Amino acid sequence: MIFNEPNGTYSYTVNLPSGYTSSNTKGTISVSGSAATSNIKASATTNYLLIGIIIVIIIIAVLASVLVMRRGKKKGGPKEWKETPKEKREEEKK
């Protein structure tokens, strides 16, 4: 941005959007007969809270999947076959 101002000292404040930070958002600049510049470097901040929440959700989903798969398995292994339907019919005929 360019401002045309007469000689003097001027204060400035820069409001950055949410999620950005800078070390020099406030300051003063002096103009005395020639151009004066002030560079402001903004950088995105890392949202560690959001990252933590996503990690917790993934862990819960994995644990829930493991529990569902374990419950789906039949306990006790294969069941013993006691009699065939044919044998049962033959016994009923007697």
Order of helices and strands: EEEEHH
Alpha-carbon Rg, integer? 37 Å
What is the first-to-last residue Cα distance? 104 Å
Tell me the fraction of residues in β-strands, as a range.
15-25%
User: Could you name the ranges where pLDDT drops below 50 across 5 or more consecutive residues?
Assistant: none
**What characteristic shape results from the CA principal axes?**
rod-shaped
What class would the helix/strand composition place it in? Answer: alpha+beta
Assign a percent range to the helix content.
25-40%
How many distinct beta strands? 4
User: Mean pLDDT, as a whole number?
Assistant: 83
Task: Summarize the structure in short.
Helices cover 36% and strands 17% of the residues.
List keywords for this structure.
94 residues; two-stranded antiparallel ribbon; alpha+beta; 2 helices
Secondary-structure topology with pairs:
Layout: E1 8-13, E2 20-21, E3 26-31, E4 43-44, H1 48-72, H2 85-93
Antiparallel strand pairs: 1-3, 2-4
